[in-house]
Design a protein that fits this description.
This protein is α/β, with parallel strands linked by helices. The chain has two domains: about 5-125, 3-Layer(aba) Sandwich (Rossmann fold), CATH 3.40.50.2300; about 135-230, Arc Repressor Mutant, subunit A, CATH 1.10.10. It is built from eight helices and twelve strands. A hairpin with a 2-residue loop joins β6 and β7. The longest helix is centred in the middle third of the chain and has 17 residues, at about 105-125. The termini are far apart. The relative contact order is 0.10.
Length: about 230
Amino acid sequence: MSDYNVLVVDDEEEIRDAIEIYLKNEGLNVIKAKDGLEAIERLHEHQVHLIVLDMMMPRLDGIVTTFKIREEQNIPIIILSAKSEDTDKVLGLQVGADDYVTKPFNPLELIARVKSQLRRYVALGTYEGVEKLIDVNGLTLDQSAKEVKVHGEPVKLTPIEYKIVELLMKNAGRVFSIDEIYERVWKEPGYNAENTVAVHIRKIREKIEIDPKNPRYLKVVWGIGYKMER
């Protein structure tokens, strides 16, 4: 994994240094920043493949930083938060984060989540023996370019959002339960996954639907899950 650069953003130097040690032991390159403003500067200076981002920081916190990054890039973002409440986790996901780890964190868990997000990010669109271009009534997904368009207009999706859209478009018409979506996309058991999946579905609708409250493509099947309408 020595070809991958991870940006670690935290206002506590000891935490930055500790995460750097863990990641370097896994063969990853590490770039560090002490707050959101410095993180954005580093992104303009380096090619970054994943960001580990603290939520509570001076000058520019993790939420605003994530929002600003998402205006330009779809790099995977893992939020670090000292808070364990669901509302804080959901807020991070709402603005575009792909995953979260609660402080104090287990280094093995953090490393596992970093590797998982990197695998998904670098593997997008690399399926062999499948149709690379999928079209569902004007909604198109190009697996080679890792790009989604609505009637020819490109849509900016995060890596997780892309994987959800890809799963549903490749199986248009089939209903997936919330747990199944989580297990297929996050590659983890889907326990208590409803909020996490719902946040991502809402963000996807805001990007691909003309009227997100009356979706044309991404439909809910009440009591069961979601599907991509044929």
